[in-house]
Write a structure and sequence with these properties.
- This protein is an all-alpha fold.
- Helix content is 46%, strand content 0%.
- It has one domain (9-68).
- This is Aminotransferase class I/classII domain-containing protein.
Length: 81
């Protein structure tokens, strides 16, 4: 949840799913947690926006490295790339 720069990855493609399962996103598949608190914290701390900004910065730097070392770093991809 929030790892792609949007709250849910489906938000990148502009579709509305009929149903979504979120168990792993909330508890990592390991332990039950307070789901409503997790959603509020994710939104209040603007996690998706922070992830999007860091992702852009990271890709920018990887592309710079790739331009100097294309023999080693052959491909740089991110969400939507």
């Amino acid at each position: 949840m929030g790892r792609t720069g949007k709250l849910f990855a489906v938000d990148h493609v502009g579709v509305t799913p009929d149903i979504m399962t979120l168990g792993k996103a909330f508890g990592g598949g390991v332990a039950p947690i307070a789901t409503i608190a997790a959603i509020h914290t994710t939104l209040e701390e603007e996690v998706p926006q922070i992830v999007a900004a860091k992702g852009e910065c990271f890709i920018k730097h990887l592309l710079a490295i790739q331009s100097r070392h294309s023999d080693v770093l052959t491909m740089v991809r991110g969400r939507g790339r």
